[in-house]
Design brief:
Blueprint: H1 2-60, H2 67-78, H3 86-93, H4 103-108, H5 112-127, H6 135-139, H7 144-148, H8 188-194
Helix pairs in contact: 1-2
């Protein structure tokens, strides 16, 4: 009886060793298949970026490419979103001629890649990164006085036009109120939500 128990135990141990080696081979094959799928997906996305860059160069008949497009392609790559035809699909979906008509229906047709790009563009804008760097404020610094009190229009004789009847009184601001800083203001409520 002891001998049969030893043989049964030996058989069970051998079966478990075989099963363990089969499971190890299966896990290794799955890991290899997962790595292969991941690498194939990454390679497809890299080829899509190269293809989009080539198409962009052909359309513009130039060897240069727009840094904003490259930034958008990289963002889609990092977020594992489809890249091919993203910019073209949005341009064809909402042409400038009828952009204001049926917007709700057209916005429902926007693909996930373009929605993600919109979201990332807003984040870039709020964080002053990408094309929205903080030096944009200092380069295109508007004169607030010109905005609030635009130059008067001249009539045919070259004299300033008379103000219309019933016009509101002229608003006067102090010099300190008209200054615009070179640094964008921090929106603490929104900034805390995004960071």
């Amino acid at each position: 009886m002891l001998k049969t128990m030893q043989e049964a135990t030996k058989t069970i141990v051998e079966e478990r060793i075989v099963r363990s080696s089969e499971m190890g081979a299966y896990k290794s094959a799955q890991r290899t298949a997962n790595h292969t799928d991941l690498c194939a997906g990454l390679l497809d996305q890299i080829i899509d970026i190269a293809d989009e860059a080539y198409n962009h160069q052909q359309r513009n008949d130039s060897s240069d490419f727009d840094k904003r497009n490259w930034h958008e392609w990289v963002q889609l790559f990092l977020h594992d979103m489809p890249i091919t035809g993203t910019l073209d699909s949005l341009a064809n979906l909402i042409p400038q001629e009828d952009a204001g008509e049926n917007m709700i229906e057209k916005e429902a047709q926007i693909d996930s890649s373009n929605l993600k790009l919109d979201e990332l563009e807003l984040v870039d804008y709020l964080k002053n990164s990408g094309q929205w760097t903080s030096d944009i404020v200092s380069k295109a610094k508007p004169e607030l006085a010109e905005i609030l009190a635009p130059p008067t229009e001249l009539d045919a004789k070259g004299k300033p036009k008379a103000p219309p009847k019933g016009q509101a009184a002229e608003v006067v601001f102090e010099e300190a109120e008209l200054e615009i800083s070179n640094v964008p203001d921090n929106n603490f409520l929104l900034g805390d939500a995004l960071e």
